[in-house]
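Q: Could you predict the 3D structure of NADH-quinone oxidoreductase subunit F?
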Amino acid sequence: MTLTSFGPANRIQRSAETHPLTWRLRDDGEAVWLDEYQAKNGYAAARKAFADMAGDDIVQTVKDSGLKGRGGAGFPTGVKWGLMPKDESINIRYLLCNADEMEPNTWKDRMLMEQLPHLLIEGMLISARALKTYRGYIFLRGEYTTAAKHLNRAVEEAKAAGLLGKNILGSGFDFELFVHTGAGRYICGEETALINSLEGRRANPRSKPPFPAAVGVWGKPTCVNNVETLCNVPAIIADGVDWYKSLARDGSEDMGTKLMGFSGKVKNPGLWELPFGVTGRELFEDYAGGMRDGYKLKCWQPGGAGTGFLLPEHLDAQMYAGGIAKVGTRMGTGLAMAVDDSVNMVSLLRNMEEFFSRESCGFCTPCRDGLPWSVKLLRAIENGEGQAGDIETLLGLVGFLGPGKTFCAHAPGAVEPLGSAIKYFRPEFEAGIAPTRAGDLNQVVTPTMVGA
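A: Sure. Here are the predicted structure tokens for NADH-quinone oxidoreductase subunit F:
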């Protein structure tokens, strides 16, 4: 895995002033353990938060910084923290780190946990202090075995140093932290499904309200944040709001930096910490190096499999939530995928929808039945056996499984790439429709006709 900096790796080095997430990384890719982490100013922000700041001050600082969730939804972190109850009599509260990174084409949290486990622990420690949570869980994707090993070692190091456990830093504040590995379900990326799984239940999303801040783990107030989100907290506390906001490019409504990447048949696939507001073209050409020789960019996804496809002319969009929204899709996780001109879009979408269909929890009808229907139609079109009206049926499913039509955001994310692929590459789908036989009286069935 490649990790460079704001400019080409041979010209600009990472620094604490410009790369709050990655400046401590080792060149050899090995994990940074406690002694080295503290030598690189690690836990200084936690000491400042414990010595000089009340919990409400920490919450307000994070709110003022403009930090938003880095898992894909982009909800303002400080606002989310502010939803936790103020009642001091509620002495059982939980902090959950969502480390169930199962979005295809996304591996940013894995890098942070494997190479900088203490950065995550420090971020959770400060967050726990702010939210008055006495226990935390890192809900980790089960396949991340190296991350689990490194996080567990880092937790033990922090305990031995008095940075976790009882009476942390002599403050009287207690915080226990546990690493919990999941069983491997994409739906656990949804925070209430994650909570159900942590409790030993089936990983179905819960109805909201009540929100986890009111009724979360075992019925107690709970805050759920993504790995990268929590890793931003120490730098914000240490260096302040104005500095953090200054990191983003002009025009960006999102503050700070973001781990972004590019995969596919590019010359330099990798992961980089970049300021919000860089363009997709900078990410693709200056960092990923453009397409490999013999390949041409056909389209790209800006942030994981659940985001819509964009064309090469959309590369000039700025990489922040509003910038990507202007060209018709979502920023997502910020890890882009290049699709080359040798790829058939029908086959690509069939593969994607098979994944999303398999990972549906099956709780609501549109998702449970609609996604397998899309797979069946795409497989027929892929094999040249599609029927007249199949494309319209697929577009009908895109509408019926869109935002607000299902119990959670799984189905809307699943059909967004499908809708954009048909929009931009419809002839490839039409090529899989078999010629209608003379006298064929088969009726075209669309989702709008079901139940009519």
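Q: Anything worth pointing out?
A: The first helix runs from residue 34 to 39.
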